[in-house]
Design goal:
The complex is a heterodimer of chains A (155) and B (85). Chain A is of the alpha+beta class. Chain A has one domain: Aldehyde Oxidoreductase, domain 3, CATH 3.90.1170.40. Chain A has a 4-stranded mixed sheet with strand order 1-6-8-2, sandwiched between helices. In chain A, strands 7-5-9-10 form a 4-stranded antiparallel sheet, with no helix packed on it. Chain A has a two-stranded antiparallel sheet with strand order 3-4. In chain A, helix 2 packs antiparallel against helix 3 and helix 3 packs across helix 4. With 85 residues, chain B is an alpha+beta fold. Chain B is built from 3 helices and 5 strands, in the order E-H-E-H-H-E-E-E. A 5-stranded mixed sheet of chain B has the order 2-1-5-3-4. In chain B, strand 3 and strand 4 form a beta hairpin. Classes of the chains: A alpha+beta (155), B alpha+beta (85).
């Protein structure tokens, strides 16, 4: 399980190659890449700044990855989240999971993203033509997370 | 009891405070009590921490419910619902 918080960009191919290198038990790799949109709630977004809570961020992401590993038979999980100033089309977050079969990797990757969206201490502040504005949390994120609580979804 | 307070994102900006070392009276036992205690400062504190405002809290870097008991020397953070990813 690897967790990285960084200002720098990352390369998807390089990260996935490193994640599965030397593990011939891997038969499936699922990745999710989150990127910056130039519109949000009908408003143009010129850029954004991602704030986080150092120490808690790493702890919460490691906890998320550990939970995924406990729930599904996966080989490796990688979470990279960028912080600081970002522009439209920039990459924000990468979650990649390796497993022997695709079902586990798909489920674990989605679980990690849903959990990250509601539990990892990151906050987006968008720059719009009307000035800076903090992004409001979405109810749909809580709904997505709630699916995983209590019962283990089929994988 | 001595605590280290942290505020993030919109709360940090509205309160013009990112962190604070604070000594609180012994009757303040939970994070919820602490939130009320800070509201009594009035002004922005009363508004930003008002009851019903969706605020999350963490004790020593772990998100916890507001009825969680405080601990001597703990780091308590208040912040809005998270919006990463």
């Amino acid at each position: 399980m690897t967790v990285r918080i960084q200002e720098e960009d990352f390369d998807l191919s390089t990260e996935i190659a490193a994640l599965r290198k030397g593990d011939a038990q891997v038969g499936a790799v699922v990745s999710f890449l989150g990127t910056v949109r130039d519109m949000n709630e009908g408003c143009q977004v010129k850029g954004m700044t991602l704030e986080h809570y150092p120490q808690m961020t790493e702890k919460s992401l490691e906890n998320i990855a550990t939970q995924a590993k406990a729930r599904w038979d996966i080989r490796q999980a990688l979470i990279i989240h960028r912080v600081g100033p970002l522009l439209p089309e920039d990459q924000i977050v990468l979650v990649a999971v390796t497993s022997s079969h695709r079902g586990e990797a798909f489920a674990a990757c989605e679980f990690i993203m849903d959990y990250l969206k509601t539990a990892a201490p990151f906050w987006k502040k968008e720059e719009t033509p009307g000035g800076g504005r903090w992004v409001d949390a979405r109810v749909t994120d809580d709904v997505a997370m709630a699916r995983w609580v209590g019962n283990k979804p089929k994988s | 009891m001595n605590l280290q307070l942290r505020f993030f994102a919109s709360l940090r900006e509205a309160l013009a405070c990112s962190e604070e070392d604070i000594d609180i009276p012994s009757q303040i036992k939970t994070i919820s009590h602490l939130r009320s205690f800070l509201r009594e400062r009035g002004g922005q504190w009363a508004q930003v921490l008002a009851e019903g405002k969706p605020i999350r809290c963490a004790l020593n870097h772990e998100m916890v419910p507001e009825d969680t008991a405080l601990q001597e020397g703990a780091e308590i953070a208040f912040f809005p619902p998270v919006t990463g990813g």
